[in-house]
Amino acid sequence: MGSTESISGTKKVCIKCKLPKPLEEFYNRKESRDGRSPYCKECHRAASKKASKKPKAKRYRRKYAKAVSRTPKGAARRAVNDALKVGAIQKDPVCRGCKKPPSEVGELSAHHWATYEPSDWFKIDWLCRLCHEKADAEREEKLRATTTNEPEPDETVEVSRDWDPDTNEE
Prior knowledge:
By secondary structure, the protein is of the alpha+beta class. The chain folds into two domains: 6-52, Wheat Germ Agglutinin (Isolectin 2), domain 1 (2-Layer Sandwich); 55-146, no CATH class. The chain has five helices and seven strands; from the N terminus they run βββββααααββα. A hairpin with a 3-residue loop joins strand 1 (6-7) and strand 2 (11-13).
């Protein structure tokens, strides 16, 4: 029996630590024959933690953070976070969407309803993750609707085939 095979259908041996563990201790993985990762969750987390400390991973995170912070959205996020740190603004006690406290729905995040222009940076609502996703989807839908509809011409001008543009006569 190989180390990636199931033991009696309810357990599996991790290829890293070589210990038999329940299937729930392995992440789902479509590519595997048994639908589970060859590493147990504990070994997978340890490997991920070790990899994230490598210089290459740190450079990638730094580069990504720098790229995002240069966008208007990144600048708006930074402005809100800085204002929170100095106490210039405070988070709402409940989600503006579902009216539930963070203890029930998780941490609230700032949703920018308007643009990411500096004048709109603090036009925000504090939303839970689910309400934030719904609000973003609504904004994307509105944006798609306004960009796909072509403007209607104000007036239709019929041009005669006999018209000569050089002389401007018929």
